[in-house]
Amino acid sequence: MARMSQHDPGPARPAGPMRIWLLRHASNLVGSLGRLARQPFASFLTILVIAVTLALPASLHLIIKNARSLGDGWDNALDFSVYLKSGTTVADAEQMAQLISQRADVANVRLIKADDALEEFKAGSGFGSALDYLQDNPLPHTLVIRPAPSNTQASVVLLHEELGNLPQTEVVQVDSEWVRRFLAILDIVQRAIAVGAALLGAAIIIIIGNTIRLDIENRRAEIEVTKLIGATNAFVRRPFLYSGLWYGLFGGMLSLALMAYGLYSLRAPVARLAGLYNSQFQVLSLGFAECAAIVGAGVTLGLLGSWLAAARHMRAIEPR
Amino acid sequence: MIRIENVVKRFPGGQEALSGLTLSVEKGEMVFVTGHSGAGKSTLLRLIALIERPTSGQVIVDGQNTARVSRRKIPAYRREIGMVFQDHKLLYDRPVFDNVALPLVIAGLGHREAGRKVRAALDQVGLLHKERQRPETLSSGEQQRVGIARAIVSRPKLLIADEPTGNLDPDLSLEVMRIFRRFNEVGVTLLIASHDLALIDQLGCRRIALENGVRQALVDDDMDIDGHVEGQPSWQG
């Protein structure tokens, strides 16, 4: 204002408008933090609700992520079992195994001879001596083929087809077809979680909006006076926006803490289970980007909620 | 400084607070508006502060027609006017200093400069030593002086006051009026609503009497034509 500068000639004005703007925001930031601290219990409850609401979809996401990594482990080992025609000799089978193992898209080939398979079946099935009455061995020679890890989905299909076209092949069976189905199911569940997360995000906006609305209502007299002496809507709104920001930030951080605790308590039992299966599986935790996304979501939703509440209720408060 | 032309203010209920009021206050004047409660004093000040809009007629403040001040421009408009209220309207959650500094903070003034102006304003109302205290620890008269310091801290050309001495005893009232008088002496225009006739007579300022939303036909009306009322008690009032 011209009137202001008129009264202040002289050199003692180092504070530029940018600096003043920053200072004003900084003091608002600290001020609204102080306001939260003055009602620790109520603030904590709000933050806790936000944390739980954020942790819900995030931990579901984490479960999916772990299940997927489990599936990925199997997916790499998509073994084919190639059952050979009954007339095939052992020598033919060995030659065939030799040939196939030279292919670039095959990691290794294991031949299970029909006799070995029968022995194994006798030992493992419990039919035991009943099988001795068989005159011929009904089992075929089998090639267990592990595709090379470099394979794509398409090249695996191609390999499957080519193995099926070999003259000695009776049938090719993909042992892990169900893994793909499992991954497809995970995709659907993940989609569902995304929808749920959107709803929970709306819930956070409402929670924070309502908290801010009550806060505005409590400070109605103050807002009226401030407006009466010339404060703009933006000026009165600012501290409430920062309150929303704090709620969201702390909510996001607390939800990370809740999830970290959950993961920590799961780690030992999962390791025990994995040990029983002779698996190296380890629980995946949240990466940095995911942590940032959760806190970022908290902050964004907090700001959005408080902005909606402030924009709606601030206009209604005019000096009387 | 202020021109009120044929202003009517009718409230939604149908009652009329002002019924064709016309008056003017020149730059540098100190004018009292008197009348019973309900005579329209407060409504007049509220129209000037743009808390209300007139039903018809014009309110012109410092050459600016208030009808042309849009909702968005109201804050900037109010920052040019100092306002003092009967109930002080202080913020009780912060010390005296912060209360007085509020208009400067709103205007976006730097810290050091604001501090200097706040102390100058507090000095003028004699409360420099209480800047760290909370308003509720002050007496009613002191609280009113804090309110006055806040109204003048950004050095407005116009100061309006609604019953500023309404809750004060005669001694404190006189003190407040003396403070107003000093502002007037340095060129601030003041429009003060009050029903304390004895006090006003003591000060000897021009007086506009309202009754039922119009000017009362008093000797004051004749007087403000020539604008000379200094020191003349209005016995007829």
Strand content of chain B: 15-25%
Strand content of chain A: 5-15%
Taken in chain order, the helices and strands of chain B follow as EEEHEEHEHHHEHEHEEH
The largest sheet of chain A is: 4 strands, antiparallel
How many angstroms does the end-to-end distance of chain B come to? 25 Å
Q: In which range does the helix fraction of chain A lie?
A: 55-70%
Oligomerization state:
heterodimer
Instruction: Report the strand count of chain B.
Output: 10
The profile of the biggest β sheet of chain B is: 6 strands, mixed
> How are the strands of the largest sheet of chain B arranged?
6-7-8-3-9-10
Gyration radius of chain A, in Å: 34 Å
Stretches of chain A where pLDDT is under 50 for at least 5 consecutive residues are 1-14
DSSP summary: helix tally of chain A: 10
Low-confidence stretches of chain B: 220-237
What is the tally of beta strands of chain A? 4
Write down the secondary-structure element order of chain A.
HHHEHEHEHEHHHH
Sequence of strands across the biggest β-sheet of chain A:
2-3-1-4
Structure notes:
The complex is a heterodimer of chains A (320) and B (237). By secondary structure, chain A is of the alpha+beta class. Helix content of chain A is 70%, strand content 8%. Chain A has 10 helices and 4 strands; from the N terminus they run αααβαβαβαβαααα. In chain A, strands 2-3-1-4 form a 4-stranded antiparallel beta sheet. In chain A, α3 (40-75) crosses α9 (233-276) and α7 runs parallel beside α10. Mean pLDDT of chain B is 85; it is low at 220-237. Chain B is globular, with a radius of gyration of 18 Å. With 237 residues, chain B is of the alpha/beta class. Chain B has 8 helices and 10 strands. The two termini of chain B are 25 Å apart. In chain B, 43% of the residues are buried. In chain B, strands 6-7-8-3-9-10 form a 6-stranded mixed beta sheet, with helices on both faces. In chain B, a hairpin with a 5-residue loop joins β1 (2-10) and β2 (16-25). Chain B has helices at 41-48, 74-78, 96-107, 111-124, 140-152, 170-185, 197-203, 219-226; strands at 2-10, 16-25, 30-34, 56-61, 64-65, 81-84, 158-162, 189-193, 206-211, 214-215. The chains are: A alpha+beta (320), B alpha/beta (237). Chain A binds chain B through residues 1, 3-4, 7-8, 12-13, 15, 17, 19-21, 23-24, 222, 225-233, 235, 318-320, and chain B through 49, 51, 75-80, 83, 89-91, 93, 102-103, 105-113, 150-151, 154-155.
